[in-house]
Design a protein that fits this description.
single chain; alpha/beta; five-stranded mixed beta sheet; 7 strands; 42% helix
Length: 306
């Protein structure tokens, strides 16, 4: 598609925007608009200018096939505070990682993930927290290595992120994770090898276009320091400051995430932990996730360097 000569006449292609978001991916509440301007430099002028610049970079990368949709580009601009060069670098990494490590980063369709969801180990809470952020809860003790692999877990987490990154409110407000380490045992040790630790950190820091605003560890065992020692070499200071260890103190967790939305297992009023309704919703969007497979780099991974 040809590039317009003027920023002012650049069309806003929103064909993908309405999928999962009836108001369109350019829609934000008044509170999120203010946050986007203050924290992300999102103004009408920057939107037009940086979106135009980013589209030019994408079209100059002839090996890259992405959705012809400005709403898709917008998620990368928001993740990089409307710096089009940084947004383009993230977009390249996003697709390069999917190309090089499909067993981890390619997004599965929901129907492929039934055995993972049946374990009740992951859940994207229905309600947002008091700061408008999505909350994703992971329970390590429920991952049965006799049933699923670490690759299954990793890709299901990618599926969760691919779902919520479509939401403009989430692109601005971000996501927080609650990682329940109760029952951590030797069978989970392979989940924290340097290889997988590095890939998890790369996903958060460099690859996925979301703002990861907090990592809250609960019920961690006394030897959790050994796990952190594996992660530490790969984690930037910015992310380290967002990691909080709460032990079994749910009140400490409530200081960061309102107990009104947390499951009762964490001292909240949000009912018992149950991911069935979330999974049912994902299944209704099977076609969207199938469409994601159409995009990416049109080259062999043997041609790509780390």
């Amino acid at each position: 598609m040809p590039i317009e000569n003027s920023v002012m006449v650049l069309p806003l292609r929103q064909s993908l925007a309405t999928v999962g978001d009836p108001n369109g991916s350019f829609s934000l509440s008044a509170e999120r608009k203010k946050q986007a301007e203050e924290e992300l430099n999102e103004t009408p002028e920057n939107l037009k200018q940086e979106l135009f610049a980013l589209r030019q970079m994408v079209q100059n990368d002839t090996n890259l096939n992405i959705p012809d949709d400005d709403a898709f580009l917008l998620r990368f601009l928001r993740a990089r505070k409307f710096d089009s060069k940084k947004a383009f670098h993230m977009l390249q990494r996003y697709y390069l990682m999917k190309l090089k490590y499909p067993e981890l980063f390619s997004c599965p369709v929901p129907s492929e993930c039934e055995k993972v969801f049946n374990l009740q180990a992951q859940n994207m809470l229905q309600d947002r927290d008091q700061l408008g952020r999505r909350v994703y809860v992971i329970r390590m003790d429920y991952f049965d290595s006799n049933v699923i692999t670490i690759d299954d877990i990793f890709r299901t987490n990618v599926l969760a992120l691919e779902q919520i990154v479509r939401e403009p409110e989430t692109q601005v407000a971000g996501i927080v994770l609650v990682l329940d380490m109760a029952g951590l045992s030797l069978q989970h040790a392979k989940f924290f090898t340097p290889y997988y630790a590095k890939k998890m950190v790369e996903l958060v820091q460099e690859t996925f276009p979301l703002r990861f605003k907090g990592f809250h560890i609960v019920n961690e065992p006394f030897y959790f320091d050994a796990v952190m020692a594996v992660l530490k070499p790969f984690v930037k200071e910015k992310i380290r400051k967002r990691i909080f260890l709460h032990g079994s103190d749910t009140n400490a967790l409530h200081g960061f995430i309102s107990n009104e939305i947390l499951p009762s297992e964490y001292g909240g009023n949000g009912g018992t932990f149950d991911n069935k309704s979330w999974y049912m919703k994902l299944l209704t969007e099977e076609e969207y996730f199938q469409d994601l497979m159409k995009y990416g780099y049109k080259i062999n991974n043997s041609e790509i360097d780390d």
